[in-house]
Amino acid sequence: MSESRKKEYVFAFKQSVPVFLGYIFLGIAFGLMLQNAGYSYVWAFLISLCVYAGSMQFVLVTLLTGGASLLTTMIMTLFVNGRHIFYGISFIEKYKNMGKLYPYMVYSLTDETYSVLCSLKMPEGLSEKRVSFLISILDHSYWIMGSVIGALIGQFITFDSTGIDFSMTALFVVIVVNQWLEHKNHFSTIVGFCTALLALALLGPENFLLPALSLTMIILLVFRNKTEVQEDQA
Question: Rg for the chain (alpha carbons), in Å?
Fold first, then answer.
């Protein structure tokens, strides 16, 4: 393995550490929940490998145990994970040259991976394409690992896991603070914060997310040229 490849692996791993800390604990929570519903670690592995939808996987456990129809599951998935449509739109340019890696990169674009890739600053001499892929597959492996560990633990130990899912909220806070400190132009962060508050006040916590993302996307597209100039000057 060449020296540059080694540096890419090390750099990708360092960038993925915050996600690792969140995914291991959340994955364990999902595995515990799935095992308590009567599904073994094999199902935890397969769902995390093939579904890989974070919060939707927690909802999926309820749907599975409640005997929900396929249509209900599809609609619920759209509401819970519809925000990923906006992630994909903003990464069209970034991913269009990924070649054979493109399908997996689209599939693996979770909230946390998206946040890490958005704030990625590549050292000179490293391939952004390979590093982005490594970060994506590392994040995926962390989630699978946590899910399987949780399901295995649930077979032998029973305890109250209430509150463990707050680790994901904490992870988001750390990523946002890190982006705020690293970038002088805070326009997109402020727009996202304000539109979220407005949608939350008007629509409530159950329905605010997609409208807030839509409004944020529209505002950022309208002021795209201005924000890009400001970022370059910063």
Answer: 19
Token digits for 6? 């080694």
Q: How many residues does the chain have?
A: 234
SS (H, E, C) the chain: CCHHHHHHHHHHHHHHHHHHHHHHHHHHHHHHHHHHCCCCHHHHHHHHHHCCCCHHHHHHHHHHHHCCCHHHHHHHHHHHHCCHHHHHHHCHHHHCCCHHHHHHHHHCCCHHHHHHHHCCCCCCCCCHHHHHHHHHHHHHHHHHHHHHHHHHHHHHCCCCCCCCCHHHHHHHHHHHHHHHHHCCCCHHHHHHHHHHHHHHHHHCCCCCHHHHHHHHHHHHHHCHHHHHHHHHHC
pLDDT tens figures, 26-65: 899 889 888 888 899 999 999 999 999 887 888 788 788 8
Averaged over 165-189, what is the pLDDT? Answer: 71
Amino acid identity of residue 91, one-letter, is F
pLDDT digits (tens, 9 = 90+) for 181-198: 777 778 878 888 899 899
Whole-prediction pTM: 0.72
Dihedral sign for Cα 199, 201, 203, 209, please.
Answer: positive
Average pLDDT, the chain: 83
Per-residue burial over 136-159, b = 16 or more CB atoms within 10 Å of its CB, e = otherwise: bbbbbebbbbbbbbbbbbbeeeee
Contact 23, 112 (CB under 8 A): yes
